[in-house]
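Re: 5-O-phosphono-beta-D-ribofuranose structure - here you go.
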Amino acid sequence: MAHVGIIMGSTSDWETMRHAADVLDALGVAHETRVVSAHRTPQRLYDYATAAADRGIRVIIAGAGGAAHLPGMAASMTHLPVLGVPVESKALKGMDSLLSIVQMPGGVPVGTLAIGKAGATNAGLFAASILALADPALAERLKAWRQAQTDSVADAPQ
Ligand code: RP5
């Protein structure tokens, strides 16, 4: 059963959002991926967000670009933690996406990550950290992943 739901506004977001999926794969966290557009498929968004918790999803990662209303609208319809990834847009380099996601009204939180690949990667890690609070084996895998990252940093440039 998937514990993390990765949703994105368009198939064009997958190039960014796959980095969240990659890190969840590396950590052995079951996840699902869906294209859910706040503007083009609002009924799909409603159905996904309202059913997610009952289906066993524990964290939602939502990525979108431009007028990026997907994370906020998903958060408005579920008590699950929602992590928002601003996808880099062509016109405004993702600043539009970032500002659309980050300035939520008090009472409806979205945990907003960085624009683009780093944000997607960190959303995956953040979701794993949340799940690791109740999963000691996952916590160990997460610590090992972080240690491997530390060990991979060179002392000096080649
Ligand atoms: C947003 O519009 C999507 O999240 C995507 O980042 C952006 C462009 O979508 P496409 O025109 O590539 O489908 O809804």
